[in-house]
Amino acid sequence: MSAAGLELLTTAEMGEADRQTIAAGTPGVVLMENAGRAVFLAIAAHFPPQPCLVLCGPGNNGGDGWVIARLLAASGFDVTVAGLVSRDALKGDAAHVAAQWHGPVTAFEPSAFEGRALIVDAVFGAGLARAIDGPVAAMIEAVPAGASLVAVDLPSGVNGDSGAVLGAAFTADLTVTFFRAKPGHLLYPGRGRVGRLVVADIGIGAQCLERIAPRHAENGPALWAESFPMPIADGHKYDRGHAVVLAGGPLNTGAARLAARAALRAGAGLVTTVAGFEAAHVIAQHQTAVMVAAIAGPAGLAAFLEDKRRNAVVVGPAAGVGDATFEHARRAVESGAAVVLDADALTSMKGRAQTIFRARRGALVLTPHDGEFARVFPEFTDLESRAARARAAADVSGAVVLLKGADTCVAAPDGRVAINANAPPNLATAGSGDVLAGVIAGLLAQGMPAFEAAAAAVWLHGEAASGFGRGLIAEDLVERLPIALQNAEKHLRGMGQAG
Fold first, then answer.
1. CATH 3.40.50.1370: does it fit domain 7-217?
2. pTM over 0.85
């Protein structure tokens, strides 16, 4: 996955990056010294000299800690080290750097925190695969209130691949990781333990990514730069596609209207909201630039989509749960248009999702929240992270799966996963998902591939909400989409991707 620095490396992939760098001639101890220096510089940039306790584990993460302790002491910090194991038990590069520490060493027990205002967690980092217990769990519980904590690589107790908390975990104010972030930095609950994240260069070359071929990335404009639709001087509205949004009954048209207006704001050249005759008359009183058409059930939708210029469809927002919505979804995916299935369409697929997947003729994007996901993909609800669940669902369905949450993940059938990190908490409001579905459809109408369209829509959705503050409602999101689009364009122009 080419993501211009947004790649995320699993713990195994990061280990491979280390191995390639060492094999190319950089000694492991140099990487350890570079990592320790990177953490020292981040600490020095954020904290004045003060009493500091460095907790060192038995492996390379602990080795980084011994380097950090030496550099902090040399810069005026009052440093004590607490080692989980004795220095005599250390091996390899960790033993080498630990031997260069000539300051105080204390027992690895809660009493070590006394008088220490700054704590450095260099115990385990991202490589931990078992639940924390014993003396490390006791130390986590004993961190004094008011102390600042800096984590090396990842707060000990957080799994680097899934973000899972393994029994217990430190909660950091600042985390410094190396070369590339890991999925666990962005996936909850681990993301809530990371604090401010710094990704430091320690001398690993980006060329190693070609061999590793990472499949996870942080979502951002670099991920979808090549396909993001930009204004064309001699362009025409018919060049930008025609999105169609299915509405529910006459008392349930608001969700579809939000989605339709969002699709238009996202750049679709034309948008039509379709509904039964009575609901269409209600919609017509509320819409201006968005067109309205009355259709007679699923067969009417299929007939409407015979015009292949109508190339993107949203089915689900307040459409009603049941056979009628399921049939609308089936007719939509059979049409060959790019389709977004959301909300009631997903719930209506419970127990019969394979019928939809087999009928698909064009791009398909599914946008479930956790409850809807459990109805469509019950076999994957126990997987270890949102990223893993979305990836498994995309694999079996052949669809792009956008699993919504605080750490929304977008997965493609080929294994790519984008983890979103720009969504503020005020996005948790009624109608927010309807707007998101509309933005995806607007981008699909303009020809973006499904994975890129879904990822871009999630980022734009978060960007539209950012800076608004409390009181945000879905209508605000739609009207702030131009700001988000302009910000995306600025990013892309800065990357040299836009003309």
1. no
2. yes
